[in-house]
Design a protein that fits this description.
Strand order of the largest sheet of chain A: 2-1-3-4
Structural class of chain A: alpha+beta
Order of helices and strands of chain A: EHEHHHHHHHHEEH
Helix content of chain A: 40-55%
Radius of gyration of chain A: 16 Å
Strand content of chain A: 5-15%
Low-confidence stretches of chain A: none
Shape of chain A: globular
Oligomer: homodimer
Largest interface: A-B, 21 and 21 residues
Distance between the termini of chain A: 7 Å
Chain lengths: 204, 204
């Protein structure tokens, strides 16, 4: 019986995707499920809903709540938290690098390191020197910065974003199980993993 | 040491408040915390955010997700689910009855019964005969329907709604611990209860 794979869709600028991305591997391993990080861009999806920035900026009470809640969630997980300035960060460069290296062994480490840099250290992920430093730390050659600017990386990121929209994704993190169930939010990660495990067992 | 009380703020038309209201008493009792149901009206708070209906109606993908997710959540809890038509229901009458009977022994049973009628049986809670039937079932005299129309009930519901707004509440269900921490959403109920228990123990 093969291990079920849950797609973990996220935008690198998404706040709750940070704790979810960090804890996902251990949660998944514990239950016997595999995680596949799928970066995309929330910007075009938000724009289609009439938003030109994060809803956490548009709706003040919701934003105030989110920052306090994220602080509590990170404390509970014992992971560092620093509120990034500005928010949201432009996640295009970080996403293109991830897409370019999607088949590389450093890909998953890179994804988590981008989240840690932004929400744990307060660094700007639209800064090419920050991304270069992260690539170095995860053992990837600096030449991946050039690959990130390739037509292929740009095209695949657009395709991934369009696929996310077609899957009904409207926020991040979002999880899709092998049978196509969508779960939204850090709070629903464990339910998504259990769902994937349960349906895999039922059809085995 | 006294039992900490968590305020459970909700609008009777709120979808995720249904499973939260039903499971809250058992979850609270298990951990040694008490729940106080605090109905208010989301309408004025949504209106201040520029919405004239539920965000689940305004944002199509989010709405489609919510109905499927709510169905899964109810199945997991083994409670009935029927999507109400129309959505959202006008919750004014149901809320005024609850406010009028806020000190009565049937108040909590009434709150849960309104949710069950709406999301479990698909009944309309803006129908006075439905509310009359619920009052009868929970052992409350029909005269409470008149009390619901009193100036006092109207005034207190307005005050409660304004207090919810001042507490930073922007959606439902929302939970407020004795030390003033806000937790939003059915998914955060258990965290709110644990928080209330933990801080009560720490200051005992």
């Amino acid at each position: 019986m093969s291990i079920p794979v849950v797609d973990f869709w996220f935008d690198f600028g998404s706040t709750y995707s940070y704790p979810a991305a960090i804890r996902a591997p251990a949660c998944a391993a514990k239950i016997g499920v595999s995680i596949r990080y799928r970066p995309f861009l929330l910007g075009p999806i938000f724009k289609a809903q009439g938003w030109d920035t994060s809803p956490f900026n548009i709706y003040e009470a919701k934003g105030r709540y989110m920052w306090r809640d994220l602080e509590r969630v990170c404390a509970e997980l014992s992971i560092p938290f620093r509120r990034p300035e500005p928010f949201p960060q432009d996640s295009l460069l970080a996403a293109r690098v991830a897409i370019a290296g999607r088949n590389e062994s450093w890909h998953d480490d890179y994804c988590r390191a981008v989240f840690r840099a932004q929400f744990g250290e307060g660094l700007r992920i639209d800064d090419i020197t920050v991304i270069a430093g992260i690539l170095h730390r995860v053992g990837a050659p600096a030449s991946w910065l050039e690959q990130a600017g390739s037509d292929d990386a740009k095209r695949v990121l657009r395709t991934e974003t369009e696929q996310a929209r077609q899957l009904g994704i409207f926020g991040a993190p979002s999880f899709i199980t092998p049978d196509g169930e969508l779960f939204w939010g850090n709070d629903r990660l464990d339910t998504a993993l259990a769902w994937a495990k349960g349906t895999a067992a039922a059809t085995a």
